[in-house]
Write a structure and sequence with these properties.
Multidrug-efflux Transporter Regulator, Chain: A, Domain 2; 3-stranded antiparallel sheet; alpha+beta; 3 strands; 41% helix
Length: 94
């Protein structure tokens, strides 16, 4: 067996709750910012719960969080990932 291809982690070891995913990314404890990124479609989520579940549990895959970090580094900011450009105010000639 080659060391280059380690055994994959079990799915439960790769999935993090919103607060754990937020801590993993260094965004703080409450997870609101991570939830907003997920709502914008920047980070995929796994939803657990029945069809009639009013509040399904939202989990994040560590591999998706790592890909988000790489995309942020490449783009430079969340605004760049979304395609937003900062407003530029023209300089006043005095």
């Amino acid at each position: 067996m080659s060391d280059a291809n380690p055994l994959p982690l079990p799915p439960s070891a790769r999935l993090l709750s919103t607060s754990a995913g937020s801590r993993y990314l260094g965004l703080g404890e409450d997870g609101r910012l991570l939830s907003q990124y997920a709502e914008l479609g920047l980070i995929p989520t796994v939803r657990l719960g029945g069809v009639a579940s009013k509040r399904p549990r939202v989990l994040f895959d560590v591999r998706d969080l790592d890909a988000f970090i790489d995309a942020m580094k490449a783009a430079g900011s969340v605004d760049a990932l979304l395609g937003n450009t900062p407003a530029v105010t023209p300089a006043k000639d005095e």
